[in-house]
Amino acid sequence: MSTLLEVSGVSVSFDGFRAINNLSFKIGPAEMRAIIGPNGAGKTTFMDIVTGKTRPDEGRVIWGDKSVNLLKMSEAKIAQAGVGRKFQRPTVFEDQSVFDNLMMAIKNDRTPWGVLFFKPKSSDNARAEELASEIGLADQLHRKSGELSHGQKQWLEIGMLLAQDPQLLLVDEPAAGMTLEEREHTTALLAEAAKTRAVVVVEHDMEFVRRLECKVTVLHEGSVLAEGSLDHVTQNQDVIDVYLGR
Amino acid sequence: MSRSFFLKNPSVLVFIACLALFTLGATILSDGFGVGLISTSFIKTLGKTLCLCLVAIAMDLVWGYAGILSLGHMAFFGLGGYMIGMWLMYERTRLIITESMSNAAIPPTDQEVVDAIGTQIFGVVGSSDFPTIWLFSASLPMQLALVVLVPGLLALIFGWLAFRSRVTGVYLSILTQAMTLALALYLFQNDSGLRGNNGLSGLQNLPGLDAVPQSTLSVWFLWASALALGLGYVLIAWVVSGKFGSVIRGIRDDEARVRFLGYSVEGYKLFVFVLTAIIAGIAGALYYPQAGIINPAEMAPIASIYLAVWVAIGGRGRIYGAVIGAALVSLVSTWFTSGQVPSINLGVYTVNWVDWWQVVLGLSFVLVTLYAPKGIGGLFDLISGRTPPNRHGKDLGPDAGSLQEQEAEQ
Ligand SMILES: Nc1ncnc2c1ncn2[C@@H]1O[C@H](COP(=O)(O)OP(=O)(O)O)[C@@H](O)[C@H]1O
Ligand SMILES: [Mg+2]
What is the ipTM for the molecules in this complex? Predict the structure, then answer.
């Protein structure tokens, strides 16, 4: 199987504290992966490194068929290359409508000049409506996104992620603060996305991870503790000791 | 810019209509063209106020929309004034000198004329040679181009350095203040080439138009300022109305998020910074011929702070708010500092408004910031009954979506 993203031997320290320690990770082009691990294991920091927010002290991050080095690229360039990210806390532009949020995310020319003279084509409008109905916000298209409920904001962010049409989706705790029904909808959205792209989901909730039915990577103190099916890792003694045993 | 732009933004048409009515009214009441109820000096004050409104809407674009609190835009304004002032001063001096020399027995050579102009202009700073920066001062088209180019280039270089190193927030504001201060201090020097603290003067006299009285000229400038403000307003309204507006408001609210959507935040900031610097330069080029004099004190850091205060009081993030703030505060300020407001005698202490106005202004700024962050423009929301819900605080939780909807409808 070919590799979409390969992270190898990455370490990063904050004021002497090693948040990521010699971490290696690989994912293929149409794969779903769950990352679990206790609080402070470095899950968010891992995403920060892949998306260019945090520069690691050592290691390599290689992307795509052409094996480009993501560590040399800016956040914007990495996003343009096809890495989309959903933050742990829902971050949508609250002052703007759902439609404007989606329109900003839909894949199009990103240069200031191109955006200044941008006129939404009918295909763009159709795409925004299609996404809105996918994430269950078709009726809310012209509301300010700040008025949405917490769960709706999470979906809007997932919608914005899909709108970018990325090859890799990094999703940080998408189900946090969602009701059971909302979680099921979220699982469906992610599973659908994983048919055509790579999806990495960070999640605390074991039930949620079980429903994703995918390979699981367990992170602990900044490195990989175990990897495999959920049943496999939950039987691993190390994992039981540091994570499940508590 | 199409019909649909105006349909979607009716406030632009309302503003243009108000501006046209104002200009018409002022013209009818003016000395030069109408019944003479408004003195020439007050027409000039009104024209200057329109220029201040123009720089204020530029400030609103860069601060209210893009979230960059620049405390240096009055430096760009001043630079625009200097650029047009150089031509005005050169050309007028040249006309006076050629006329006085034409009576001489031997016609003067070109070099003699240039030397005489130099002596006339730079005598006050003990020099007679033209500094290099006056290279194009004989050419109106060149100096007009410099009105745009000099502020634009300075903003481009400064912005590139600052944004590229991701300087944001209060550090960026301090940096822009430092730029303004450095520029003002440099211009104060006699050998800066712009006549040091004397500045450029006599700018109200347009070369070759000696026959036209100031009462007429002042109305011409009022028209030109109104036109520039109208065009600037439409331009800025158009810039913020579409997706570009979405992106820069996104940058203001959460710049990291915009980056992860694939937009180069630095490029957008630079674009807005340079565009607004150019608008400020043009506003300055229209302002100083009405003021008649420009000197480096005009570019002191405090001027840019006032600009931010106007925009804050008028209401950030809405273009008409900036116009209201700039017009109201600068006119009231002119009135208070003119000494026409009677002092209040408190027995033990006399409140002299020329001094106390600053305190009042400072207090209103603090009060507006604390209690009416939307400024005067926020009143329009009350009138139109549009009270957007404040949903920047805590989330109500996953199941409370319907509750928020009720809130929204209140
Ligand atoms: N910018 C930062 N500065 C200092 N410490 C940080 C920073 N980002 C993360 N950390 C630390 O790194 C560790 C891993 O954090 P994080 O990746 O957020 O964990 P989680 O797995 O819960 O998402 C934590 O101990 C956190 O305090
Ligand atoms: Mg985390």
Answer: 0.92
